[in-house]
Structures are given as structure tokens and as C-alpha cells.
Write a structure and sequence with these properties.
Catalyzes the reduction of FMN to FMNH2 which is used to reduce pyrimidine by RutA via the Rut pathway. InterPro entries: Flavin_Rdtase-like_dom, NADH-dep_flavin_reductase, RutF, Split_barrel_FMN-bd. There is one protein chain. This protein is mainly beta and about 170 residues long. It has one domain: Roll (Pnp Oxidase, Chain A). It is built from 3 helices and 12 strands. The strands form 3 sheets. A 7-stranded antiparallel sheet has the order 3-2-6-9-10-5-4. It has a 3-stranded antiparallel sheet with strand order 1-11-12, with no helix packed on it. A two-stranded antiparallel ribbon has the order 7-8. The protein is globular, with a radius of gyration of 17 Å. The structure holds flavin mononucleotide. Flavin mononucleotide binds next to strand 3, strand 5 and helix 3.
Length: about 170
Amino acid sequence: MTSPAPEADVSAAAYREAMAQLASAVHLVTTDGPGGRAGLTASSVCSVSDAPPTLLVCLNRASSAYPAFLRNGVLCINTLSAGHEGLAADFAGRVPPGERFTGEGWGQLETGAPVLSEALIAFDCRIVDRHAVGTHDVLICAVAALAEARGADRLLYANRRYHVLPR
Ligand SMILES: Cc1cc2nc3c(=O)[nH]c(=O)nc-3n(C[C@H](O)[C@H](O)[C@H](O)COP(=O)(O)O)c2cc1C
């Protein structure tokens, strides 16, 4: 069977427009350690394996938080719920990097990465591998601990805005 002919090159703008059609969960990805405390909003989180529990997150190397993730080698993926739209905007750049953790409600689990106590689910991780692809690094993360706040409605991002998915 012959493979279909390759598509013509796709522009970055067309790709972003296509990706805007997908609905994604929204997370605050955070870190702390010798490289300092840092975090950003991210949607590019995906499960890799349950044996051992592993997930991936794609980080733009140009983001202010990137050097801290690299140095600390740990991170926490804090999945947001309905009502966290403001936090998502803050960690996406509305608030300067040094002022993103001023509010209450942060703790930690195994690795020392900041855990949002109201997160729908928190995946506390050690970064075990890293692959550069284009502008981003794909970080492969081994899950060291979990924390769950049951009962909240989900927050989704689709078509460049936030939506609530009732539980
Ligand atoms: C909904 C949403 C999802 C995002 N997903 C990612 C992501 O997966 N990876 C990433 O590197 N940046 C992502 N960003 C961008 C970062 O949150 C942030 O805007 C960027 O790192 C600039 O932050 P800085 O001011 O700390 O440099 C996303 C932003 C939004 C609003």
C-alpha cells in the first residue's frame, strides 16, 4: 500500500489555529530548589506510562521559568479547576515571574516543588529526561507523589478561552 503524498508545509499560524480547536486541561507547572522558585501556565501535559507513572510537559526554552526547571530537576503539575482562571492568567505572564507565589495556599509534597492546595490534582515529579524539539523542551517526568482535591468542576482551555466542565 502506498503512503499518501506528504501535505504541503503548514505555517506556524495555521498550526496554532488548528491547535486552538482542541480542548485541554490547564495546569500551573511549578518548581523550587537551588535554581529558585518559578512557574508558568501550561496545557501541554500528557500521560506517558503508568509503569512507572510518567508524564510529559513541553516547556518553551524562552520562558522565564525555564532555567529554574533545568537547575532544580523537579516540578509539580497542578491541574486547575473552575475558578482558577485568574491564577492561570497570572502564571501566563499577567504577573511578573517574581510575584506569582505571593498568595496563600501553597505547600509541598516529596520534591519540594510548590503544590497548589486547591489543585484538582497535583503530580509531584522528578525530571528524568529531556528532549529539545523546535522552540520547546519535552520534559519526561517521573511521578513521585500525588495530591487530590476531589469535587471541583474542571477547567478547560479551547478556542483561546477558558470553559468549565461540570464534574
Ligand atoms: C492556556 C495556556 C497554555 C499554555 N501552555 C504552555 C505550555 O504548554 N508550555 C509553555 O512553555 N508555555 C505555555 N503557555 C505560555 C506560558 O504560560 C507563558 O505565557 C510563557 O511562558 C511566558 O511566561 P513568562 O512571562 O514567565 O516568560 C501557555 C499559556 C496559556 C495561557
